[in-house]
Write a structure and sequence with these properties.
heterodimer; A: 254 residues; alpha/beta; Rossmann fold; six-stranded mixed β-sheet; four-stranded antiparallel β-sheet; globular; B: 345 residues; mainly alpha; two-stranded antiparallel sheet; 14 helices; 2 strands; 72% helix; binds adenosine-5'-triphosphate; binds magnesium ion; Monosaccharide ABC transporter membrane protein (CUT2 family) (chain B)
């Protein structure tokens, strides 16, 4: 198999006395879909935050393209082509979908106006519209605040935003949790399409059939540690559930 | 508002976009503008002779200009879901230090000073406002002290410092030239001080609604954590917003000097509350994330019109704060109901 794109080794993360991660490891290869599964509170979201620069691990190392890196801010991850759909979505509810999509990456008007920081709202709206259409987010109107959208629509916007910018890797923390059947299928389609373009996708989901249908590999987190790795083709729902609940464990377990 | 018919974006055409006027002002702003219009119309209908007199209007505008400049800065602060209680005290500090600086470089009395001294006075006012704003911003964004407490502190400290500067008395010696041009001068009947306030307001409108700075202001107020996660420097932005509010308070202090021909150390204790009331009346949400400078303009004029109007039609002016209070609470209540309706979707 190819060299890992992103690798986490023995990450720990303490929130006060809470140990959210206790030596968690994780590997993502270029152009693969790898699912990260585990029970509620296993530390999946915390691990993703540590790998996307939102939180700093208490200890442990991150390797990107084989080289150790420190992600001290979300920008450090974004600059490397890593995007994230957070479990809480992290959208600005009072801004419209286009503004959210370009948040932190605004297009400015050319010339003097741009130098003064004037936004090119038209260009952003046009491009956002194209992206949303391409990634199948169905919205009634492009200029209502996100807060006026349904939970699923919000999630679609967050997914569309992340895949629009990711050039290397996308973390998706439960991107289908609030979605209806049609929208869920669309997101899975998007995941495959992004993978085919060579971008790695890390999917977090509690839906095992979904995990098995879309992933190349599965990594299992339990109590803040990686306890098992599977090739999606060679495993079953029973095996995954067994690993998540601790009925069987393969590696890293103390 | 928008059609409830579910369509995919590919079928969204230009027509389904919210109309321009609505997008510009927001529904709340439109209502507040209407309230203002109705007020003017009612007072105008009762006493057309008095209300539409040029001097009445001129006075109303000039008195409101200073508050308008403070409120423009306050609009940015409140949209970030912050608050700035210090603006009135910073105004006094800037006004006193600017007057004293002009006197100092004119050998003790700047009454006959020229443009150079006036320019220097303006600079001193802006810088002293900016310093207080920067201090507020740094304490709020770096030390993570709640804005309410930080600016409550600088509200007291800036006023105390202003009193210390001149032993608690007003500073006279404002250049005549400054007063004649900016203070009492007019341009086609419009007081010059009003033109200054109008320019500041127009710049504020543009800054908030067309620039990246404005967009980040909304984003930080709407969801600070989301702003951080998309790589916006939240701390830096908050610092800049309080710096802006402080600098505008400095400018307001200088405008006050020009208008009143004296730097007064009293009478600005409730400027902060008046500015907050104007901003909230204008449809800016006290919870952050939404609002407009245009709304604030309406919000500034509603109390002013009420005050003048009640006097003109012969109602005791003591009714004015009560009337403003009712409108204010109603405005926030409306905002709350709107939000609740929205969040239940
Ligand atoms: N900011 C925080 N402060 C304190 N404890 C936290 C914080 N974030 C996470 N934790 C704790 O860390 C542990 C792991 O949380 P995390 O959100 O990573 O779990 P998860 O695997 O994503 O769960 P879920 O499937 O429910 O989303 C939990 O016990 C949680 O209480
Ligand atoms: Mg989670």
């Amino acid at each position: 198999m190819s060299e890992p794109l992103l690798e986490a080794r023995d990450l720990t993360k303490n929130y006060g006395t809470v140990e959210a991660l206790r030596g968690a490891s994780f590997t993502a290869h270029p152009g693969e879909v790898v699912s990260l599964i585990g029970d509620n509170g296993a530390g999946k979201s915390t691990l993703v935050k540590c790998m996307s620069g939102v939180e700093q691990p208490t200890s442990g190392t991150l390797l990107f393209d084989g080289k150790p890196i420190v992600l001290s801010s979300p920008n450090d991850a974004r600059d490397r082509g890593i995007e994230t759909v957070f479990q809480d979505l992290a959208v600005a509810p009072d801004l419209d979908p286009a503004a959210n999509m370009f948040l932190g990456r605004e297009i400015l008007k050319p010339g003097v106006l741009g130098w003064l920081g004037v936004l090119d709202k038209k260009a952003m709206r046009r491009q956002a519209k194209e992206h949303f259409t391409r990634f199948g987010a169905s919205l009634q109107s492009i200029d209502v605040p996100i807060a006026a959208l349904s939970g699923g629509q919000r999630q679609s916007v967050a997914v569309a935003r992340s895949v629009a910018w990711a050039s290397k890797l996308v973390f998706m923390d439960e991107p289908t949790a609030a979605l209806g059947v049609v929208q869920r299928e669309r997101v899975l389609e998007v995941i495959k399409r992004v993978r085919d373009e060579g971008v790695a996708v890390v999917l977090i989901s509690h839906n095992m059939p979904e995990v098995l249908s879309v992933s190349d590999r599965v990594e299992v987190l339990r109590l803040g540690r990686r306890v098992a790795r599977f090739k999606a083709a060679d495993t079953t729902v029973e095996e995954l559930v067994g690993a998540m609940t601790g009925a069987l464990s393969h590696e890293d377990a103390a | 508002m928008t059609s409830t018919k579910e369509t995919t974006l590919s079928t969204v055409s230009g027509e389904t976009r919210t109309p321009l006027l609505k997008r510009l002002t927001g529904a709340n702003t439109l209502w507040i503008g209407l309230v203002l219009l109705v007020l003017v119309a009612v007072f105008g209908a009762i006493r057309p002779d008095a209300v539409f007199q040029v001097t009445t209007l001129q006075f109303l505008l000039a008195e409101t200009a200073v508050l308008l400049v403070l409120s423009v800065g306050m609009t940015f602060v409140i949209i970030t879901s912050g608050i700035d209680l210090s603006v009135g005290s910073v105004l006094v500090f800037a006004s006193v230090s600017s007057a004293m600086a002009m006197n100092a470089v004119s050998g003790g009395d700047a009454t006959n000073a020229g443009w150079g001294v006036i320019g220097f006075g303006l600079l001193v006012a802006l810088v002293s406002g900016a310093v207080w704003g920067l201090l507020n911003g740094l304490l709020i964004s770096r030390a993570k002290i709640p804005a309410l407490i930080v600016t409550l502190g600088s509200f007291g400290a800036a006023h105390g410092a202003a009193l210390l500067l001149n032993n608690g008395s007003n500073v006279s010696g404002i250049p005549d030239r400054l007063n004649r041009t900016f203070g009492s001068g007019t341009w086609f009947g419009i007081p010059n001080i009003v033109i200054v306030a109008a320019i500041v307001t127009a710049l504020g409108v543009l800054l908030l609604s067309t620039t990246r700075f404005g967009r980040y202001t909304y984003a930080v107020g709407s969801n600070e954590e989301a702003a951080r996660r998309v790589g916006i420097s939240v701390r830096g932005h908050l610092t800049k917003v309080y710096l802006l509010a402080g600098t505008l308070a400095g400018l307001a202090g200088f405008m006050g000097n020009a208008f009143f021909r004296v730097a007064v150390v009293t009478g600005h204790e409730t400027d902060n509350l008046n500015a907050i009331a104007a901003v909230v009346l204008g449809g800016t949400s006290i919870f952050g994330g939404t609002g407009s400078v245009l709304g604030t303009v309406f919000g500034v004029f509603i109390p002013a019109v009420l005050e003048k109007g009640l006097v003109i039609i012969g109602v005791k002016e003591f009714w004015q704060p009560i009337a403003v209070a009712i409108v204010l609470v109603a405005a926030v209540w409306l905002d709350q109901t709107r939000r609740r309706a929205r969040n239940q979707r």
